[in-house]
């Protein structure tokens, strides 16, 4: 019957239970010494958390941290508080952008449905590709396919995927050996600095 129900509740031995009788449970919780614990008694924990001064910390008390983060104004920053950042990112509308906040961008990309597209957002595309199950296919997305191939364990095989095999071979430490993989060895040799030796 008090004109200030919340203040009256503060005199209770169980403030949260008293708040549950309030017309505005969340506002009542804000008067609690432990707002988050009070929110846990709410029928809508996440909505209650949104009233918190630290939404993310409040979310950490949630049974489903990621779902709680989705209500955040900055989903990625919220995910950074997760015990499994990458799994949290998978719930993002833009997985790759979320991964960019990861301490290990490439490992995060490995969880992507399109690893190569994710790698394209990397500061070092080629290094990211090296984590791919198919390095050469990943390289094909590179702005400089040949330079990417140079990071391959088998440069010549990588070159075979090039639109211009011979030009790719010219980046090889052993041009002639690379040419031997060509469908037209002689034409390849013509690009050699020493055609006769190549022949």
Notes on the structure:
With 199 residues, the chain is mainly α. It has a domain at 1-53. The chain is 50% helix and 0% strand. It is built from 20 helices and no strands. It has helices at 5-9, 15-19, 25-29, 35-39, 45-49, 55-59, 65-69, 75-79, 85-89, 95-99, 105-109, 115-119, 125-129, 135-139, 145-149, 155-159, 165-169, 175-179, 185-189, 195-198. The relative contact order is 0.05. The model has no long low-confidence stretch (mean pLDDT 84).
Class of secondary structure makeup: mainly alpha
Distance between the termini: 103 Å
Helix content: 40-55%
Rg (C-alpha, Å): 29 Å
Question: What is the strand tally?
Answer: 0
Order of helices and strands: HHHHHHHHHHHHHHHHHHHH
Number of helices: 20
The gist of it:
The chain has 199 residues and is an all-alpha fold. The protein has 20 helices and no strands.
Q: Any descriptors?
A:
mainly alpha; 20 helices; 50% helix
How is this fold's topology laid out?
Elements: H1 5-9, H2 15-19, H3 25-29, H4 35-39, H5 45-49, H6 55-59, H7 65-69, H8 75-79, H9 85-89, H10 95-99, H11 105-109, H12 115-119, H13 125-129, H14 135-139, H15 145-149, H16 155-159, H17 165-169, H18 175-179, H19 185-189, H20 195-198
């Amino acid at each position: 019957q008090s004109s200030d129900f919340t203040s009256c509740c503060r005199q209770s031995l169980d403030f949260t239970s008293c708040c549950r009788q309030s017309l505005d449970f969340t506002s009542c919780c804000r008067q609690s010494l432990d707002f988050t614990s009070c929110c846990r008694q709410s029928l809508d924990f996440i909505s209650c958390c949104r009233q918190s001064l630290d939404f993310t910390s409040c979310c950490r008390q949630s049974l489903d941290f990621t779902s709680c983060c989705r209500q955040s104004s900055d989903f990625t920053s919220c995910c950074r508080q997760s015990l499994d950042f990458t799994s949290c990112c998978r719930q993002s509308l833009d997985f790759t952008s979320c991964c960019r906040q990861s301490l290990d961008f490439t490992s995060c990309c490995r969880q992507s449905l399109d690893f190569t597209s994710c790698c394209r957002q990397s500061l070092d595309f080629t290094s990211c590709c090296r984590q791919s199950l198919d390095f050469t296919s990943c390289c094909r997305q590179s702005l400089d396919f040949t330079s990417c191939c140079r990071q391959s364990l088998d440069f010549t095989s990588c070159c075979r995927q090039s639109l211009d095999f011979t030009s790719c071979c010219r980046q090889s430490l052993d041009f002639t050996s690379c040419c031997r993989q060509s469908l037209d060895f002689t034409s390849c040799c013509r690009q050699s600095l020493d055609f006769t030796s190549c022949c």
